[in-house]
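RECORD TYPE: inverse folding
INPUT: structure tokens
STRUCTURE:
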């Protein structure tokens, strides 16, 4: 993940804040429009399924770091990696619980 280990602890507060904002943004941004054609439950499930952010965001931040370390600090990079990991783990677990599928 190319995260500076020393930057992990100082970046947790920022990471949690970014995760909450990112998750709510995806949830609201997908659920509200989906309510026009889906039930509240289905729109919410769709919104939760769109929360993971492990795709292009890390590629863009990584490319910025390639240009200069001053563009994205180690702490911000570690926080964004945290957001990607947390959203990729949180969303499937929440969906599984809401859908009633037991964990194996």
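DESIGNED SEQUENCE:
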């Amino acid at each position: 993940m190319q995260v500076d280990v020393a930057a992990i602890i100082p970046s947790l507060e920022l990471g949690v804040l970014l995760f909450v904002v990112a998750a709510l943004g995806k949830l609201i941004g997908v659920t509200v429009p989906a309510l026009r054609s889906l039930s509240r439950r289905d729109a919410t499930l769709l919104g939760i399924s769109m929360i993971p952010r492990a795709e292009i965001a890390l590629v863009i931040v990584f490319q910025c770091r390639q240009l200069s370390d001053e563009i994205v600090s180690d702490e911000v990079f570690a926080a964004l990696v945290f957001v990607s990991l947390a959203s990729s783990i949180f969303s499937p677990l929440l969906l599984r619980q809401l859908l009633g599928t037991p964990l194996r």
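NOTES: The chain has four helices and no strands.
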